[in-house]
Design a protein that fits this description.
Pfam families: Spermine_synth. With 534 residues, the protein is α/β, with parallel strands linked by helices. It has two domains: 240 residues, Growth Hormone, Chain: A (Up-down Bundle); 213 residues, Rossmann fold (3-Layer(aba) Sandwich). The protein contains 14 helices and eleven strands. The strands form two sheets. A seven-stranded mixed beta sheet has the order 7-6-5-8-9-11-10, with helices on both faces. The N terminus is likely disordered.
Length: 534
């Protein structure tokens, strides 16, 4: 986005070069249109850079609210610095603008790769995020005083009219860039290639505007220098685009190890599956370990089985696209129907087709009692029939992940309680008890605030840091347990089906887990949509 230039003081003449009309290869009307078109394109590219930093910062560091606030505030501050610094370039507005756009194309286009490389190999992304936000903001802020000078050279008009024209083109360009990022660039090209493509468009637009439209304002040396710089920037961006696949593979090996079998960016998240096709697997969602084949049974038994100790003919699973909670549900012969509400259909498809994951979930999605719905769990519950389910299993990401905050709110648990039949039970994965007790007890408080009675408990024996952890910004140690909340309209008993054979669970283990959880109790309030506490 651009900063308005400072108004000229009364009686102070404009710079000498602004008083001379530019000698253009086209009419003044066409030239003015081309300058505004350049503003439009550069504004679109600038907003894409901004959104790219927010998205990648949220993915690499976590806590999307904090990362968005950092990027936006630093960039707006830097734009003001850029606007002030650009005043010294107005005597050479065309050459200055051309050089700024070339540098912006290189810095903005390469920012995603640099940020990702810093995170993967340097272990640091915050400093780079601030650095790129500052650099891009300064370059974007420097555009406006120079564009103001250029457009005044084409046709003299009052400052207010010129600013209005520039702002109109800028804001419309920002709209296009803001919509193109999530709906075009990300799904078609991904974060890295999308940023490189945006940089190339930026370089071509800025270079063409200056080298063709204002070429007579440039000395021969300036034209050659700008042409060389723009060609060099385009060559660097093109080389990076050619190597981006190798770069991504090397980065994944550095993050996940050498045995990555599946790596796909869905419309919802990055999904990575590692491990041999016939051995223990690891499933990562957005870089967080979600499933480890070595210890997942401990988690899924503890989540599902206490809720199944009673009527369980109709079961709802929220999340659980890997099919592992579904596997535990289907082991009970009394189950007549299971509805699975999963946001990402490609995770379900992977659970249906990947040999190792299929073996782990025991082909759960092939069972005729299962119906899969692609939907956001919160929105789906708003339209669900009341008193419809004997058991509801909430197998959703950790409450410490910003994107999951609404799925651990009082409002969400109120909707989940409405679909419970009389005597029904709700089981909620609530994060680690030992390392994040405040978040765990906030989940419990939120469930109670929704009108349900709760029994909190934990399960130990975690081997591989399994399940989605909190945002990467968290300084909490690697968790070694899982926390759960069992709830109902009346206080449910913490029991197990005696006819079922368990791999790692017993009523004694459950009671010990309840005592262990109780020892960590802290007094906290519920989390709501308007007052999130995670």
């Amino acid at each position: 986005m651009i900063e308005p230039p400072l108004p000229a003081s009364p009686g102070v003449p404009p710079p000498r070069e602004a008083a001379v009309d530019a000698c253009l290869p086209v009419s003044a009307r066409t030239g003015r249109f081309l300058v505004l078109l350049g503003v439009f394109i550069c504004a679109a590219c600038g907003l894409v850079y901004e959104l790219e930093l927010v998205a990648l910062g949220s993915y690499l560091i976590g806590d999307s609210v904090t990362q968005a606030s950092v990027v936006l505030s630093v960039m707006v501050f830097a734009m003001g610095i850029g606007s002030l610094a650009a005043k010294r370039l107005r005597c050479r507005a065309a050459a200055g603008f051309g050089m700024i756009e070339a540098v912006l194309a290189l810095v903005g286009g390469g920012s995603a790769m640099a940020l990702y490389a810093g995170f993967v190999w340097g272990g640091e992304a915050r400093a780079l995020l601030v650095t790129f936000s500052l650099a891009i903001g300064i370059l974007i802020g420097a555009e406006v005083p120079l564009l103001m000078t250029l457009i005044q050279r084409i046709r003299r008009q009052d400052a207010g009219g010129a600013v209005a024209d520039l702002f109109a083109a800028d804001y419309v360009g920002a709209l296009v860039g803001g919509l193109a990022f999530p709906f075009l660039l990300l799904p078609l090209f991904g974060q890295l290639t999308g940023a490189l493509l945006t940089g190339a468009v930026n370089a071509v637009a800025g270079g063409a505007l200056v080298l063709w439209l204002f070429r007579r304002d440039l000395t021969r040396r300036s034209r050659r220098l700008l042409l060389f710089v723009n060609l060099a920037v385009l060559a660097l961006l093109a080389a990076a685009a050619v190597l981006v696949d190798d770069f991504e593979r090397a980065a994944r090996r550095a993050v996940y190890g050498s045995d990555v079998r599946v790596a796909v960016q869905t419309d919802v998240q990055e999904v990575v599956l590692t491990g041999p096709a016939t051995g223990p697997l690891n499933l990562f969602l957005d870089g967080r370990l979600r499933v480890s084949g070595r210890d997942e049974h401990r988690y899924h038994e503890a989540l599902v089985q206490p809720a199944m100790a009673g009527a369980h003919g109709r079961v709802l699973v929220l999340g659980g696209g890997d099919g592992l909670a579904l596997r535990e549900v289907l082991r009970h012969s009394g189950v007549r129907r299971v509805d699975v509400v999963e946001l990402d259909p490609q995770v379900v498809e992977l659970a249906r087709r990947d040999p190792a994951l299929v073996a782990l979930n025991r082909r759960a999605f092939e069972d005729g009692r299962v119906r899969v719905v692609q939907a956001d769990a919160f929105q789906w519950l708003r339209g669900a029939r009341t008193d419809a389910y004997d058991v509801v299993i909430s197998d959703l990401p950790d409450p410490g992940i910003t994107a999951s905050t609404k799925l651990y709110s009082q409002e969400f648990f109120g909707l989940a309680g409405q679909v419970l039949a009389p005597g029904g039970r709700l089981a909620v994965h609530a994060g680690s008890v030992s390392t994040r007790p405040r978040a765990f007890w906030t989940v419990d408080a939120s469930v109670r605030a929704a009108g349900l009675a709760t029994v909190p408990y934990s399960a130990g024996g975690r081997l591989a840091g399994f399940a989605a952890g909190p945002d990467r910004g968290s300084a909490a140690p690697v968790p070694r347990d899982w926390g759960f909340v069992l709830a109902g309209r009346s206080r449910p008993g913490l029991a197990l089906d005696p006819s079922y054979r368990y791999r790692s669970l017993s009523e004694g283990v459950l009671r010990a887990g309840a005592r262990a959880a109780e020892r960590t109790r802290v007094v906290v309030g519920p989390s709501t949509l308007v007052h999130p506490r995670f």
